Amino acid sequence: MAADAVHGARKAGRYALLAVVSVIVLFPIYAVLLQALKSGPDSFDHPRSLLPVDLTFDTIRSAWTIGKLDRLLLNSLLVAVAVTCGVILTSLLSAYAFAFLDFPLKKVVFAMFLATMLVPAEVTVLINYNTADSLGWVNTYQGLIVPSLASMFGVFLVRQVFLQVPGELREAAALDGLGHWRFLWSVATPLSRPTLGALGLFVFLGTWNAYLWPSQVITDEDHRTIQIGLEHLKTPNDISKLNLITGGLVVAAVPIFVMLVIFQRQLVRGLTAGAVKG
Amino acid sequence: MRRVSGVRLSGVTKKFDEGEDQVTAVDNVDLDVADHEFMVLLGPSGCGKSTLLRMVAGLEDPTSGEVFIGEQMVNDVAPKDRDIAMVFQSYALYPHKTVRANIEFPLKVRRVPKAERTAEAHRAAEALGLADHMRRKPGQLSGGQRQRVALARAIVRRPAVFLMDEPLSNLDAKLRGDTRTELVDLHRRLDSTFIYVTHDQVEAMTMASRVAVLNQGRLEQVGTPQEVYDHPASVFVAQFIGTPPMNLLPAGLLGGEGVRVGVRPEHLLPAADGAVTARVHQIEHLGHEVLVLAESETAGRLVSRLAPGPDVPVVGDSVRFEVRPADMHRFDATSGMRLP
Hints:
- The structure holds two protein chains of two kinds.
- Helices cover 73% and strands 0% of the residues of chain A.
- By secondary structure, chain A is an all-alpha fold.
- Chain B has helices spanning 49-57, 99-109, 114-127, 143-155, 173-189, 201-207, 225-230, 235-240; strands spanning 7-18, 21-33, 38-42, 64-69, 72-73, 84-87, 161-165, 193-198, 210-215, 218-223, 247-248, 259-263, 269-270, 276-285, 290-296, 300-306, 318-322, 329-332.
């Protein structure tokens, strides 16, 4: 009986802690959502009001039209999908080389690849901009996409999975008549699907939320991604549209939210796949 | 028309670099495996038997020497073009494919039409009792079933030569016995040459048409199981084949200067006027036979295999053993090689 009571109390304590953490995490999201669902003057009059009164979609609607969010979303979607596919492809190919092929200076080349992970993205912005500029890629989709097509993180992650493919499986495949391409596509890639799913999700979210590089390489309106476009919703002098940017934020977050809900399990499985063998 | 599917190794050597050193895994091996033969490569771990098999498969390149499959020298032929199939110790099934897809895969790669593929896979699965498991994935099968899938995948290709690398070592004792019988049966039904690697002399003795015994990369002896048992070519073979192993007397005892005499346990029999005296220190009753373990001052440890009965000595007895000259195996004390 006493043990049961202690067990029950512990359980209650754990749930209480989880509840507090959830509130801390969810509160800012709630606050943003609430602001977005109020009219401009309303959000100004009662900036700290946390009660859902007089809710309206007007703000989101005007953010959509004023900010031309449809175009921004389309641009972001295009860039994120292209970068995600590209990163998965380049990661598969170079991870395959590092895991399964023998070539001169393999270890050195891999160490150099790894070393690039130590360089913060901010450091490379200037030089990348110069390159993009010299190629005439400023204000183009390729300027947005190509510099992000390879990710050392992806190469490393996929290589780790490939290294776990048993040697006898490769040999059996060789006897079955599989060349490198066929082995990559019909054996190695299917075996690393959970990891590729997680990698894809990471890259998609990272690209969707990217701000620094798009803000440099894009200056015109046509190629703006959603994160850059939102900035243009700032209207500090118009009280009636003060929370326009909040409305835009909510719109920008919806695709991410949907992706996370759909791929949540894949994400967790992919991240633990490398940790626990089997 | 029957394909010629013998395998011939001529002066095959394989050296591996290990850091600064070179290790010779296979040392100048000549071996002729006849068409449709069940050849077992037998030896302790590290003797080079798997390396030899892998060179036949094309998974390793010989450092020197030539490998022939049929009439063709295959040193420069890719594994997939050698008309062989291999069953691995770990089975090496594709974990993401169903049993059916695993079995069909070698045919699919070779662009065999789907209908034919399905029929072949079905036939192989039927033959190996897998028909009910075609939709499962390897992870859902027992060790024995996975082993059969690996065999089925090898069979569908109808290769000229089957290579097997310790395929039974991951199975439990009962299943191993059953599968042994099935493999012999399979060999009889298929029109193929089998080369089978094992360290288990029981597998070698029960399945092989001929056994090739390897030690430290060198071929010690090739012969039928009975030949290898009755006339071991060296001390190594004599002791490796047979359970319990052959008794080996110290040089000089019973055989004259520079000669070691070996005696199989079943040939070491108690006799009133026997030449070797030993004290019994353990008796093992196995039902159909009794093993008498004895210690002799002149001959060291001895094992005698007797029929159960009232004549079996008890622990502590001093027993005289005799060896008939016809049952003696004589080896050169220095080289370890058999003497005529």
